[in-house]
Amino acid sequence: MGSLPMASSQAAQVRQTDRQSKAPSDARACRAARKRAKGRTIKALAIAALVPISPSVWANTVTLTTADHRLFRTDLILDKKIKVRGVIDTGSTSVVICAQMAQELSLALGTSIELETTNGTMIAHRSRLKTVQIGGIIVSDVATVVHTHETCEEVLVGLSLLAKLHKVILRGTILELVGRPPTSGK
Fold first, then answer.
1. pTM reported for the whole predicted model
2. How far apart (Å, rounded) are the C-alpha atoms in residues 19 and 6?
3. Pair type for strands 167-171 and 112-117
4. Number of folded domains in the chain?
5. Domain check: are 86 and 145 in the same one?
6. Could you tell me if 101 and 36 lie in one domain?
7. Quick check: is 155 in a domain?
């Protein structure tokens, strides 16, 4: 869908304004009110189409699909060093990596904690990743948990990363991750 984000928000604002206006009592007045609202919506869409949108905003969107309505997987780059497969897990508080990855990234291991998993309780350590990249989205300073298993095939991408995104949108078999626009002056 090639629609501009601003167009839908302006159209929604116009529709919201119309809903708040006084409701007409007869059918003729009702039709006239609908016609006026439609005209304002079209004008708002036309104006929004003229407003330039920065290409960097579009580059910060990653769309993932799943065929089985279960797991969304994507490639990640951890601290600009290791490329790994990740599973989006909204039930996980943190990004979870294994000891081997932590060692390759030279991560400092912090406090030990107990993790409650579907397979029981395990000991892990708190840590932080400088960056996690998903497509064109780069998230900085991500709380991470390092579990004691030597190796792992996939990284869990939990809320410590997802909460730093601008939006996470789920539509059936499509998950859209929207990064925050770049800030100026940094």
1. 0.65
2. 20
3. unpaired
4. 2
5. yes
6. no
7. yes
Q: Which residues contact 144 (CB under 8 A, 6 or more apart)?
A: 94, 95, 96, 97, 107, 126, 127, 128, 129, 160
Domain range for 107? 56-178
C-alpha–C-alpha distance, residues 58 and 13, integer Å: 23
d(CA 3, CA 63): 16
Q: Distance from first CA to last CA of the chain, Å, rounded?
A: 32
Going residue by residue through the chain, which has 186 residues, state the pLDDT in tens, using 9 for 90 and above.
333 343 333 333 333 333 333 444 455 665 665 555 554 444 433 333 344 443 433 458 999 998 777 899 999 999 999 999 999 998 889 999 999 999 999 999 999 999 888 788 889 999 999 999 999 999 999 999 999 887 788 999 999 999 999 999 999 899 999 998 876 554
